[in-house]
Write a structure and sequence with these properties.
- The chain is mainly α.
- The protein contains 3 helices and no strands.
- Helix 2 packs antiparallel against helix 3.
Length: about 120
């Protein structure tokens, strides 16, 4: 049976491929892309934090609350960036497909012509 450490290490390759493809795509919202890259930061923080927990406390990272919570903060921030990036993209897509009139627009009132006449 494959160990969890080996499985974790092997799972990085498909994720790096995913990042490579979405990085080249012009359709991925930039903020969401940063969030997906932030997940790598989470991994980079979690590995040394797990080693520190094992060496210093003789516990797994999950059992050292302050260290585990600090590492999970990076995953939470990454997830927030992903959600905000896709939210921004949805708002922009709606604005393009359904433009809204200005807030002061009232079709029952005569409109003032603001174009310059020479």
């Amino acid at each position: 049976m494959i160990s969890k450490e080996t499985l974790f290490a092997l799972s990085l390759f498909p994720y790096l491929g995913f990042l490579w493809f979405i990085g080249r795509s012009q359709q991925m919202p930039r903020l969401a892309l940063y969030g997906f890259y932030g997940t790598l930061v989470f991994v980079a923080i979690t590995i040394p934090a797990g080693i520190y927990a094992q060496l210093h406390y003789q516990q797994s990272l999950a059992n050292v609350d302050w260290l585990h919570g600090s590492a999970e903060l990076f995953l939470t921030l990454s997830n927030i960036l992903i959600v905000l990036g896709f939210r921004q993209a949805v708002i922009q897509r709606k604005a393009i497909s359904h433009p809204q009139p200005p807030n002061n627009y009232n079709p029952s009132l005569p409109q003032q012509d603001l174009s310059e006449k020479n």
